[in-house]
Amino acid sequence: MPLQYPEILRYIFNSFPMYHRIGSAAYKEGFENIEHLAAMAGHPEKKLKAIHIAGTNGKGSVAHLLASYFQELGWKTGLFTSPHLIDFRERIKINGKMIPEEKVVAFFEKYQPKIAIIEPSFFEMTTILAFDYFAQENVDIAIIEVGLGGRLDATNILSPILSVITNISLEHTKLLGNSLAVIAREKAGIIKEDTPVVIGEYHPETYPVFEQIAAQKNAPLYLVEEYSGNLQLGGYYQQKNLGTFLKSILVLENLFLTTKCTKKAQCAQRLFTSNSNLCVLCENPLCPLWLIKKSIQNLYSNTGFMGRWQVVSEKPLTICDVAHNPAGIELVMKQLQTIPHNHLHIVIGFVNDKDLDDIIPLLPKNATYYACQPQIERALPAEELFNKLKSANFNVLIVPIVLEAYTQAKSNAQENDVIFIGGSFFVVGEFLQCT
Questions:
Q1: Is residue 61 within 8 Å of residue 308, measured between CB atoms?
Q2: Which of 274, 303, 332 is the last residue of a domain?
Q3: Do both 314 and 275 map to the same domain?
Q4: Which residues have CB under 8 Å from 432's CB, separation 6+?
Q5: Kind of pairing, strands 317-321 and 418-422?
Q6: 409: pLDDT confidence band, cut at 50, 70 and 90?
């Protein structure tokens, strides 16, 4: 009897350790498994023209922006990101459409016996599924987001045309290192010989690491200027991601001439200037600046982008965001407090490897909190989060189930209040799945 997709999905989740579900126990160092998987599938990674993206925060946003750009350019565009919010197939898309169920089934029907022998991690298996699908479909470009770190990540068997490192902050320190410089060296593992690399943010502890490794590999190094132009995308933190995206496009244009427009160099000069009017020199559909404008306007429809400063309701204003580490949470909470409102309701939950002592000082005191927990093994118990917030003198209720926590917040909120749902990809995923 042929395999069915639900059966395959159970097999995927039950047979392979999944980092985002169980944590560091699922993390596997080294390339032995992924190299065996790549050989099994005929080395699809060698058939891809790819952009490879690492970083602590923002790599998913930059990946989606780049995918949207190439879709506007008319290229068949593969996009590999993680984790998913609702559907496993969100991780693997071509032109914004999730990999069909029958393609997942066909892959496992063909390779399941060999996969069982190799015993890869969940992420290794998902990576080769994506590469195989993109190669089979002859995508023009593949936008590939690193899973964790960079140097030893399964995606790092790629030979990309461009590497991007968005930023570095302290996260996953047990796996990647306990200093910014050490973590930067892990992320810098995606820098390849003679391949340009874009660095999204300057930091005195990390940039020298990137300079050193880029020099060793003869990799042209580009640092993103601070973006203060008039392009906008959701949360304040997206200005940094927009800058990284724009710089990446300019580097690609200079090196690979992906579009043909006689005025694009003049347009590009205006890109990072304050209060510039985008593409005032021309509205040529092939101008990279015009395509940038369209790719941002059509980001959600092109790629299915979700979970980043996503407004799900207007009255009361309800926003969800997957920011889950101190650097991300700090920016999101600052923006929340700038929104005019009578009262703020925050539905929040975390996974159990987060240091609440670093996060709690970033949370606004003038809010009602609903402590919940996502339905995964790694979840921080809602009771533990409740106790931490209570001891810090926050106004907090314990409502363990995400949807029930949101329902209570909505019941308590007035029309001019604001509701926020966040703290974890999994909290946001459960919320979106049920709304």
A1: yes
A2: 303
A3: no
A4: 85, 86, 306, 307, 310, 312, 320
A5: parallel
A6: very high
